[in-house]
Amino acid sequence: MKIAYVLNTYPQPSQSFIRREIQALERRGIEVLRLPMRPSDQGLVDPGDQEERTRCQYVLASGAARLLLALLACVACAPRRSGRALRLALQMGAANGARLRHLIYLVEAAYVARLTRRTHCDHLHAHFGTNATTVALLAAQLGGMGYSFTTHGPEEFDAPLSLSLGEKVDRARFAVAISSFGRSQLSRWASFGAWDRIKVVHCGIEPERFPEPKPMPKGHLRLVAIGRFVEQKGQMVLIRALADAVRDVPGIHLTLVGDGEMRADLEAAIADLGLAQHVTLTGWLSEAGVRDELAGAHALVMPSFAEGLPMVVMEAMAAGRPVLATYVAGTPELVLQGETGWMVPAGDSHALADAMVRLASVPHDKLTDMGKIARERVFDRHDIDCEAEKLAEHFDQAIKGQAT
């Protein structure tokens, strides 16, 4: 079995879950052709991401001439299919006033279709229901191959009509959601007849990378938050909550791992609220660096406004740390109130502050026990080899269905 993975910008620091999925499929003997549109312009600090970049064939690096020649070849070889693909691209582009952009996607899709046919791929798979899936859909139309895609959220669920999300599900051999919540969102826009083709396959972790957790630290409460500095992650609410919490827990310390467009705003808020001694910003770290930060914390805090099902929550639980998170998307499917962590309403800085104050009073042994339960739960639900096996079965069934 040979699968072509169609991706937008890859690899990226915040998308190591895709790399782990691909590698788990390869351990099962499946050949994976990596076809991102472009490389990331962010610095890749993790050696795994750096190595993964060398295995990618970047579509846009081929140049405009080769992409256009691929489209002309598709038209010459299969004029009817090409005509249908053109009409579909224009139809999807009309949904958000982006016909020109979708014509560009068609050109990219032609290159993908030609390359995957020459390299004898059996199926196309995309991650995220945005432009990568548009390219995969159009490439499937041009090349007569089946495709599937994985949605993560929240971006896809913020703009389902302009992304033609229902159309993408309806035309796919199958569609993947990473949580039951995600499946429900795809079901909103797909036809009823497509519902059985919407599968839940969790993002996964590699248990062997999480040996026996380091002991829960003692002393003042230490929290870590990990993620892109963007509005949906809720770090600004976290900073405001921290300002309230330090009045009752003066020794509390928060480490923010990540970077992004909101960094300057966060730095300004930290200074304005007098929190410089309570907050450390690390920038992006390697996977090993993230594990070190988790080991030095009592809990992960995830204050998101919108999510799919955060990988960092899985990693924290695998590291034997409870999680303080918000009631959004798929997170409550993993974090159990009072057992593996605590849940608060999204956007409520006072509730978050109160939860941090209560967390500071939880006995050390209780935190350790919660971490053990969290570790067992995430290993049971999110082992990447088990999830890759599910995905491989869906690929196999899709290919066999295509052949018949």
Automatic annotation (TrEMBL):
InterPro entries, alphabetically?
Glyco_trans_4-like_N, Glycosyltransferase_grp1
Domain Glycosyltransferase subfamily 4-like N-terminal: start-end pairs: 98-209
Sorted UniProt keywords: Glycosyltransferase, Transferase
Q: Which domain of life is it from?
A: Bacteria
Give the matching Gene3D superfamilies: Glycogen Phosphorylase B (3.40.50.2000)
Alphabetically, the GO molecular function entries are:
glycosyltransferase activity
| Methyltransferase found in the keyword field | no
Keyword Transferase in annotation: yes
Annotated EC: 2.4.-.-
Q: PANTHER family from the xrefs?
A: SULFOQUINOVOSYL TRANSFERASE SQD2, TEICHURONIC ACID BIOSYNTHESIS GLYCOSYLTRANSFERASE TUAC-RELATED
**What is the protein name given in its UniProt record?**
Glycosyltransferase family 4 protein
What organism does this protein naturally occur in? Tritonibacter scottomollicae (Epibacterium scottomollicae)
The opening ranks of the lineage are:
Bacteria, Pseudomonadati, Pseudomonadota, Alphaproteobacteria, Rhodobacterales
